[in-house]
Amino acid sequence: MASETEENYIKAIFKITEKNQGAANTNAIAAHLSTSAASVTDMLKRLSSKDYFHYEKYKGVYLTSKGIEMATQLIRKHRLWEVFLVDKLGFSWDQVHDIAEQLEHVDSDELIIKLDAYLGHPKYDPHGDPIPNAEGKFTLRNQVTLQSLEKNEKGTVVGVRENDTPFLQYLNHFNIKLGTKMQVLSHIDYDHSMKVLVDDTVELLLSHKACSNLFIKKTTL
Amino acid sequence: MASETEENYIKAIFKITEKNQGAANTNAIAAHLSTSAASVTDMLKRLSSKDYFHYEKYKGVYLTSKGIEMATQLIRKHRLWEVFLVDKLGFSWDQVHDIAEQLEHVDSDELIIKLDAYLGHPKYDPHGDPIPNAEGKFTLRNQVTLQSLEKNEKGTVVGVRENDTPFLQYLNHFNIKLGTKMQVLSHIDYDHSMKVLVDDTVELLLSHKACSNLFIKKTTL
DNA sequence: AATGATTTTTAGAGTACCCTAAATATTTAT
DNA sequence: ATAAATATTTAGGGTACTCTAAAAATCATT
Ligand SMILES: [Mn+2]
Ligand SMILES: [Mn+2]
Ligand SMILES: [Mn+2]
Ligand SMILES: [Mn+2]
Q1: Which pTM was predicted?
Q2: Mean pLDDT within A81-109
Q3: Which domains are delineated in chain B?
Q4: Nearest to B106 among A102, A114, A118 (CB)
């Protein structure tokens, strides 16, 4: 069985390669895990016998299918636990990540099977991220950033790009959550901020940063 | 924060001193944690600066109030998770211990507060063991072993002394669980086994070993 | 009180993971 | 193409936890 540390390395490599399209390099892994580059090199060398990834000196690392399988199952567990924490225990979406980081390492196949059933086989987590099924398949969705919508276009919030606490709390403050309706009133050229109509009632001015991090499913009329 | 290993040591010391009335000795701790006596001595020496327990060479170890507090909270977490696994996820009582051993180390006060509320503030776990409340108080109960009942006395199963899988599965096999009604039909002198009437319907012959490990709340007529 | 059995500690060493500082390889800018 | 900047690896070492074998202390028996 893989140690918690090993699991965190594999997951980090998966997330970095997913975002970067290409091998995960040492510094990126170090940053992701808040550790030193030297520790990463050390770990990659020790782990490379275990067939989770291909590692070539100075060229970074990418996962084998065994590594992808492991990362996917960890993400599945992480997101299922987040659903549990929000839907059943009543946490808000900005409070669950760190707890799920711990829960995802609990080792029991039966536990995840039963948890998944108990939650009703959810397809998305509280941040709108897809939950891979037991076979590792993600349910993808048509989504675009709020920023990319044209004037007068409408849609519904279905996810957030980054789920860091400050951003989620910023959204809480404006009462924006998954399912919130959005209509673009105007783009402000000066700073790329946007005027939007929220839930058909409230007019808001949202920054470029916020609009680029909000995922919307367009309403097609 | 205490490491998972440290937590397991403190919990082991608590359980041993609770059972033995007196200091926990090295071999007992080693047996409880499936490790070597040498490792235990080493660990006790390293940990003794942290004020969880008093350690005197060759004389064993006993917890300080800080150590007792920590052990109690771990037991609280363990037992609450067991209730969750049985009541919500549908595990049977012989399947939950190992999973709860992992879950008890997840670190979040808010999580336990919310889990406890979600479960309805249970007082007992699936094995009939009392769950300490947030202040560490156990709800004790009048209970005796089935073995100690006299002929014709009646009662209800409220707990098991040891909750090892084989014993629990043995009880499953006879359909004996918490709440099962028991009436003593006779004590067999030869091997101290007992004839009992289960749930007013089934007659069973139970071994001395089983009867000494079943806790009963007597029905007072 | 002495002897033997048992328990505990010490000695010495190994693995997993982490660090800083220095060396080296790679990339970028001139 | 060379120099400078950046990324990565190596060198050397540290902590937490583990082990076996041997030494020492305690306990039990006579
Ligand atoms: Mn998360
Ligand atoms: Mn999430
Ligand atoms: Mn248990
Ligand atoms: Mn229990």
Answers
A1: 0.95
A2: 98
A3: 4-63 (1.10.10.10), 144-219 (2.30.30.90)
A4: A102
